[in-house]
Each structure stands twice: as C-alpha cells, then as structure tokens.
Specification:
The chain is an all-alpha fold and 142 residues long. It contains six helices and no strands. Helix content is 75%, strand content 0%.
C-alpha cells in the first residue's frame, strides 16, 4: 500500500500543478465575445499558444497515467475517493501560489475531505488485515 500511496501523492502533485497552471493560463486569455464556432476556434488557438495551458495539460496527463497505474493495482472504491485529496492540494496552491482568498467554510470543506480520505485509507488497511477476505485478484473476471 505504501507504493500505491507514493504513486497517489506523485499523481496528485502533478494534478495540482496542472490545475493551477490551467487556471493561470486561462485567466490570461481574453474572454470569448460569444460562443460561436469561430470564436471558440480562436480561443483554442490562443490557448494552444499559452505555455501555462500546454504545461497544465501535460501535468494533467501525468496525473492520468498515475491514475491508470493505481486503478490497475487497487480497488476503484479505494483509489478514486483518495483522488479527492487533489482538492486539498489545489486549495493550498490557490491560496499560496495564485493568492486566492479562501474563506473558513472552504477550509472546513478541505478538513472534511482529509477526514474522508483518512477513513478510506483506514478501511483499506482493515481489509488487508482481514484473513477472511478474498484478494481482488482472485475475483472472477467479468
């Protein structure tokens, strides 16, 4: 499980950097005047010339690869909820890197996410210590 958590932390770090860079890059673009096809094409062209947006997409791709690795090694009911920790990382990055104002209610939400992730990790450890459980690799394939 330690290896899985390291992959998770690595992936969430890239997810956070990707989200922050995408946000920064998109805020530097002019808002579309309308949402017609021609205007959307112009906006995509501007986005493709932004190093923040391109780097953000690349970092998101690294996260996706980490997610694929994690999901191939563990139950989705364990892995997917833990990816919610990206909300914690991105809130911290938004506060300290993007200088966003974050109120107490949002911080309370971050604390609840951390508590939820802790519960999920606890249930996985409990499952691993239960000899009566069948390992997921022995489940019949559908």
């Amino acid at each position: 499980m330690t290896k899985l958590l390291l992959i998770l932390f690595f992936g969430l770090t890239f997810e956070t950097m990707g989200v922050v860079l995408l946000s920064k890059g998109l805020k530097q673009l002019d808002s579309p005047k309308n949402y017609g096809p021609a205007e959307l094409v112009r906006m995509v062209r501007r986005a493709l010339s932004s190093k923040e947006i391109l780097l953000g997409v690349a970092f998101e791709a690294v996260f996706f690869i980490c997610l694929l690795v994690m999901m191939s090694r563990a139950d989705v009911s364990f892995v997917w909820p833990l990816t919610a920790l990206t909300f914690v990382f991105s809130t911290l990055a938004a506060r300290f890197y993007l200088r966003e104002d974050i109120d107490g209610l949002r911080w309370a939400g971050v604390v609840l996410i951390v508590l939820g992730a802790g519960l999920i990790t606890f249930t996985e450890k409990r499952k691993q210590n239960d000899p009566s459980r069948v390992p997921s690799s022995e489940y019949p394939r559908i």
